[in-house]
Amino acid sequence: MIPHALRVAVLGAGAIGRLQAAAIAYAMPAPSVALLRRPGTPATSLCIQVMDATAAATTTTTAATTTSLPSRPADAAMGDGAPHIVVVTTKAFDVTRAVHDLLVSRTAGQASTSPATAAQRAPTAVVLLCNGALTARDRLLAAPWWPRAHAHVLLGLTTHGARLPSSADSTACLPVMHTGVGETLVGMPPATHPCYPAMACWRDRMLATTTPVRGVWRFVAAAAATQACYRKLALNAVINPLAAALQVPNGALATAAPASAVATLVSETAHAVWTAMEASLDAATTASGEMMAAVRPFASPADLAEAARALCALTAANWNSMAVDVQRGGPTELDALYGGLLDPPRSIEAGQGTAAVDPVDLVAARAHLRSLSGLVTAACELRRTA
């Protein structure tokens, strides 16, 4: 059971973070929700203004608050101790640092947070809603400080579209444009898991509340969430780097013949790697105990390519996050998307198992991914020097 008021922190104040925080704030009492921003940001109470770009309506909530990390704990909005649930919406390359700052650095100087005290409370549920969640999870679990975080990672995803307005008065309100209504899917731990009571409480509140922030919340078994994340990874690996390298909205990839050919090539590459992984690893589970069926979310390269084209047509006007990152000349999430494809498990490299893909083909396929990776990297450099 939850001994005190459930505390939920949304880590990352970008467009998706603001959107999620606004939705959660409607379902939770005001002191129980915090939107956590970058280190050095003043700790203050701000509203989140959600502007529905499709319905020309404006919704405002004042229930979500902000604070800074890691100089202070999660402020008065979190009460005493760590949050029960942390919803991570940062960029994939920021996840490890941000979670460390919140769950490890924040408590390092607090005398009241002894190892014995931490052991007495349930671990914090860290719900990853960012792109590249699978890679972000692996990096968290591999971090040498992770055992001290007293936390458990849960996978999730969101299909909402959101962006920040070009200009806004951030001292009075945190605005966000809701550009595409989607769903938020969260993987639930089993009922015997120590994080389950907090997650079940959060789930029940979200499902019982109708918020002005449009969209669907789904809480599913962990295995289903893992498979959904692999599916999203596959689609993002096809669409995002290609749109970023060409600097086009998603719709251009659904109609341009050259882009379609590249999408097919990337699909074949991803499928080759997944097939090799499926043959090289244990047939029942991966190293983290997940069903291997989740590794290959599409039956064939053609299925993946067609699904990518269909998604591009559905989101034709959208500039995906990697394309926007390149426009701004900032870092991208390329490593998080391609990490599992460019650096598959060592068992494949060692030739263990009987892969259905010729090793020469696998090497060539990965070379194609590295070429596309180079295009995106070059586009970023051009933006930085322009």
Automatic annotation (TrEMBL):
Transmembrane segments: none annotated. Keywords: NADP, Oxidoreductase, Signal. It comes from the Eukaryota. InterPro entries: 6-PGluconate_DH-like_C_sf, 6PGD_dom2, Ketopantoate_reductase, KPA_reductase, KPR_N, NAD(P)-bd_dom_sf. Residues 1-21 form the signal peptide. Belongs to the ketopantoate reductase family. This is 2-dehydropantoate 2-reductase.
